[in-house]
Write a structure and sequence with these properties.
The protein is an alpha/beta fold. It has 25 helices and 17 strands. Helices cover about 45% and strands about 10% of the residues. Strands 6-5-17-16-15-14-13-7 form an eight-stranded parallel sheet, with helices on one face.
Length: about 700
């Protein structure tokens, strides 16, 4: 009898344990609460359950239990990915940068049958060094918290995390005898921090106030703590040899001069053969660990964008950099970007298998994994080393609808099937700027969860239903027009990123770009985007107060008007060539009116308004002096970028141009108006041709306080 009693109690305990498992309090519960504005609690349940049959695979399942949604997975990231999949493909809710949270409907949508997705790709990386300046330079914790939630729901488990690294260097240089003034001559200002970290420049945008270092240290500690809580492993910047240019005369180090980058003198390179390299690297990792702890991944890109390798033993450099990292953390993996000539084959060949992870940075256009049709073709890819298939997409934070859907999808499955695909370990996005083209990010991060090659056209229909909660024939037709034009740019399209808007260009005739390395010639009929815009406008009433639709509507109309401007400027150029002053007068008036119309349109959304960018910069300051410094950083980055040498001869002016409300009216309109007026006066014999100082206009705008 006593035995039966014990048996009943044991069985009851097991039953209670099993029934309670879906109610486990996991990090994803708090995530779900944040992104559904408190409406998921008790309605969406999560269960962490390993898959004993396929332990090497990540998986999630979406089912129902007692009228509730049950999401099961074998990691925190799998559960969060399952949550995002449920929201998109069952609840019709798409969370993105413009719509980071949304309440669930009162009647909870349930899946009609069990949904199960698996992946053997264990790594999903995110971010480019440039993103931290072009998009994130002035983020606070509230904005970072939303971004980390965004990462978690897309299964991202190795994002670059470089916020606050300037504090590491501050402490390191103090340790070796540098003064605060000397340190601030080396460390760049807030908007230019990443090019300093990439060994491209020193001090530009500074000096930084002491409060900046304290602020960024506190912010990074919050970021890292949240990432670890959610099962995300941050990628910290490692040490590859960068030192201040004056360290030779100050401390006697033997250094190499790596030359210049776009007119900026680069920081010096401490040879790995110098007796100080190991000790300096050790101090760097010690200071990094004191502040932010250890991580499994360290990012290093020596000789970035043309860094001088003359006289450098690349094999020794690679092994010394690896040795220093392994001394700090024996389990660490070196993360390196495949961009232009990097990584040099001689540098990575001696490194052990499993110790290096290569990001194929621009897989959708210039893959290096072994695609024989690529201009950056490497026959053996990255040899024995692991690598990730990455999408770059955006340059400079420029605004524009852009992507290569077919190339992105087919390239991934081609890589998986290629002999070099045996070392493919996952995917990633490495954009210079974010908060644009959400469709392309969603597509990329779904690739590892879809085992078989699929049609982007069919996928897009599911995306639109999720994005808008429902789709009309007009919306479908509009997006088909976009899919076959802006979202399938030819692989050989010149320039970088989107078709550039000439509304943002320094004035001229027969222009084919706005920035030095961009391109503005349309590869599609200009009425394609106009058609998409008209179709979207025709059903706007049915989507009133639908945040995603309203955001996309503004972006699509903006693109159609930018395309119209590019065509119109070529007509203006021809009128000028013909000395047809009446046509010139009328066409230039239309062009200027178009800039003001674009400005008014974009000012209706905070995402497309320059005031949002500048306000975020000023908000981080604790004094007027700090606020003005941060605002200047924010203003200069998107206009002149550097001094007159870097802007004009180095080609950096307008590299980060933004088709934003406020900036169009205050700067771009004024540049074009002055230029057109001068040309009109030449026609009327009222003035002689003279060169206009556009840099002076841009510099004046950057230096003028725009405090409201």
């Amino acid at each position: 009898m006593m035995y039966m009693r014990f048996l009943l109690i044991a069985l009851l305990g097991i039953t209670l344990l099993c029934s309670c498992q879906p109610h486990q309090q996991l990090p994803v519960n708090s995530l779900a609460d944040r992104v559904t504005e408190g409406t998921a609690q008790g309605r969406i349940l999560f269960q962490l359950l390993p898959d004993e049959h396929q332990p090497a695979k990540g998986y999630f399942e979406i089912t129902t239990e007692d009228g509730k949604v049950l999401i099961t997975g074998n990691s925190d990231l799998s559960l969060a990915t399952g949550l995002n999949w449920y929201l998109k493909y069952v609840a019709g809710i798409h969370l993105s940068w413009n719509n980071p949270s949304q309440k669930l409907p009162s009647a909870l949508p349930l899946p009609e049958k069990k949904i199960r997705q698996e992946t053997s790709m264990q790594h999903r990386c995110y971010l480019n060094y440039c993103t931290f300046s072009y998009s994130m330079a002035f983020w606070d914790w509230e904005r970072w918290e939303k971004e980390i939630d965004w990462m978690e729901m897309r299964g991202i488990n190795m994002p670059l995390s470089i916020t606050g690294v300037e504090v590491v260097w501050y402490n390191l240089l103090k340790r070796v005898g540098y003064t605060t003034e000397e340190i601030n001559e080396f460390i760049a200002g807030p908007a230019f921090m990443v090019w300093w970290q990439m060994n491209n420049l020193e001090g530009w945008g500074g000096p930084n106030p002491d409060s900046w270092y304290r602020q960024q240290e506190a912010l990074q500690k919050k970021i890292v703590a949240r990432m670890h809580e959610l099962g995300i492993e941050p990628v910290f910047p490692g040490y590859a040899g960068m030192v201040p240019r004056n360290i030779g005369e100050k401390l006697g180090y033997r250094i190499a001069d790596p030359g210049k980058w776009c007119g900026f003198p680069r920081p010096a390179f401490l040879s790995t053969e110098d007796e100080h390299f190991d000790s300096f690297a050790a101090m760097y990792y010690e200071e990094l660990e004191k502040l932010y702890g250890k991580t499994k991944y360290y990012s290093m890109d020596p000789f970035h964008e043309g860094g001088n390798t003359e006289g450098v033993d690349l094999a020794k450099a690679g092994t010394s950099i690896m040795k220093a990292m392994k001394k700090a953390n024996p389990d660490a993996v070196w993360v390196i970007q495949a961009w232009q000539a990097n990584p040099r084959a001689k540098m990575i060949e001696p490194l052990n298998e499993g110790d290096l992870m290569v990001l194929d940075l621009y897989s959708e256009k210039l893959p290096q994994w072994g695609d024989p049709n690529s201009r950056w073709y490497r026959e053996k890819g990255f040899g024995k080393h692991d690598w990730l298939y990455c999408k770059l997409l955006n340059f400079g934070g420029n605004v524009g609808l852009h992507g290569r859907m077919n190339q992105l999808v087919n390239g991934y499955y081609d890589a998986c099937a290629h002999p070099n695909g045996t070392t493919l370990r996952g995917v990633g996005t490495t954009p210079e700027g974010i908060e644009n083209n959400p469709v392309m990010f969603e597509l990329l991060y779904e690739l590892p969860w879809r085992e078989e090659r699929f049609s982007p056209d069919a996928w897009l229909q599911g995306y639109l239903k999720a994005r808008y909660g429902g789709v009309t024939p007009e919306v479908t037709e509009a997006w088909q027009a976009l899919e076959h034009t802006v979202y399938n740019a030819p692989k050989d399209y010149p320039g970088e990123g989107t078709v550039e808007s000439l509304l943002c260009a320094r004035p001229g005739f027969h222009l084919d770009r706005t920035s030095t390395w961009g391109y503005s010639k349309l590869f599609y009929a200009p009425d394609s985007t106009a058609k998409a815009a008209q179709l979207m406008k025709s059903v706007a009433g049915q989507y009133r107060e639908n945040n995603n639709f309203e955001y996309d509507l503004v972006d699509i109309v903006r693109q159609s008007q930018a395309d119209k401007g590019n065509v119109l400027l070529e007509e203006i150029s021809r009128s000028y060539d013909r000395k047809d002053k009446e046509s010139f007068r009328e066409q230039t008036r239309q062009f200027l009116d178009l800039i003001l119309t674009q400005d008014s349109l974009l000012s209706t959304r905070k995402e497309f308004s320059v005031s949002s960018w500048l306000t975020a910069a000023r908000s981080l300051g604790t004094t007027d002096e700090e606020r003005n410094l941060y605002e200047w950083n924010a203003s200069a980055l998107i206009t002149v970028w550097g001094d007159s040498i870097a802007a004009n001869r180095g080609g950096l002016h307008d590299y980060s141009h933004r088709e934003w409300g406020g900036l169009l009216k205050e700067l771009y309109y004024q540049r074009w108006k002055v230029s057109f007026n001068q040309k009109q006066q030449e026609f009327d014999n009222k003035s002689e041709e003279q060169e206009l100082n556009f840099y002076g206009m841009e510099k004046a705008w950057a230096e003028k306080s725009k405090k409201q």
